Amino acid sequence: SQTIHQWPATLVQPVGSPLSLECTVEGTSNPNLYWYRQAAGRGLQLLFYSVGIGQISSEVPQNLSASRPQDRQFILSSKKLLLSDSGFYLCAWSGRQGNFPGELFFGEGSRLTVL
Amino acid sequence: AQSVTQLGSHVSVSEGALVLLRCNYSSSVPPYLFWYVQYPNQGLQLLLKYTSAATLVKGINGFEAEFKKSETSFHLTKPSAHMSDAAEYFCAVAHNTDKLIFGTGTRLQVFP
C-alpha cells in the first residue's frame, strides 16, 4: 500500500533562518506531488505542484521554493523565513493511472512557527 | 475559474442531530467535487467524491453529499452526528486536472 511521510512534524524557526521540509511517498511510482499551506481561517492554498523529477509549477509568488530531486521526494525550502510563512504545510500525492483527477492523499503535515 | 464557497466557518450540532455542511461551487464546465475531513493536527482524508456517475454520493463514516447542478451545490450531510465527527471539513473542486481548489473549511463541533 502507498504511504506518505512528512518531516519534521513541528518546527519553530526565527525570522531570517532557512527552511527545509521533506516529503516522501512509498508504494507508488511517478506520482504527482503537491505542497499546500493551511493558514488559520484561510483554507488550503496550493503552493507547488510537480508532475516529475525536476518539474515544478509554482502557484503563487512567495518566499518559498520547491524541488523534486527524486521521483518520490518533494522538498519545500526557504532561504530566509518571514513571519508570514508560519502555518501548517501539507504534502500530498495523486496517482497517474487509475485515479481520476484530484484524488489526493495527504501527509500528516508540518507545523511551522516563525518567531 | 473554478472556486468553492463554504457557508459557515463553524457549525455546532448536538449528538444525534442532523449534520449539514454547505458547499457551492463555481465552474464553467462539469466539475469533479470532493469533501475531505481533517482531524486536529493531521492531514486531510477523503470523505467522498462526485465524478458524474451519480448525483447522490455516499462516503465513509455515514456521510453523503448530493450534487445539484441547478443550485451549483454539493452539500455534505449525515443523519445523526457522533462525537467523533468533530473535525474540520473541506469542500474542493477540480476539472480535468490534478489540482484541487479548496474552500476555506467548516469546523464542526458536536455537543453531548
3D structure, described in words:
The complex is a heterodimer of chains A (115) and B (112). By secondary structure, chain A is mostly beta strands. Chain A is 0% helix and 56% strand. Chain A is built from no helices and eleven strands. In chain A, the strands form two sheets. In chain A, strands 2, 4, 5, 6, 9, 10 and 11 form a seven-stranded mixed sheet that branches. In chain A, strand 7 and strand 8 form a beta hairpin. The radius of gyration of chain A is 14 Å and the shape is globular. Chain B is mainly β and 112 residues long. Chain B has no helices and twelve strands. At the A-B interface, strand 4, strand 5, strand 9 and strand 10 of A face strand 5, strand 6, strand 10 and strand 11 of B.
Give a short summary of the structure:
The complex is a heterodimer of chains A (115) and B (112). By secondary structure, chain A is mainly beta.
Note the main attributes of this structure:
heterodimer; A: 115 residues; mainly beta; four-stranded antiparallel β-sheet; globular; B: 112 residues; six-stranded mixed β-sheet; 12 strands
| Main β sheet profile of chain A | 7 strands, mixed
Give unreliable regions of chain B as ranges: none
Most residues in contact: chain pair: A-B, 25 and 26 residues
Strand content of chain A: over 45%
Beta-strand fraction estimate of chain B: over 45%
Number of strands of chain B: 12
| Overall form of chain B | globular
What is the gyration radius of chain A calculated from CA atoms? 14 Å
Percentage of helical residues of chain B? under 10%
Count of separate DSSP helical elements of chain B: 0
Overall, the morphology of chain A is globular
Helix content of chain A: under 10%
Assembly type of the shown chains? heterodimer
Rg on CA atoms of chain B, Å? 13 Å
Helix-and-strand structural type of chain A:
mainly beta
Largest sheet: number of strands, sense, barrel closure of chain B: 6 strands, mixed
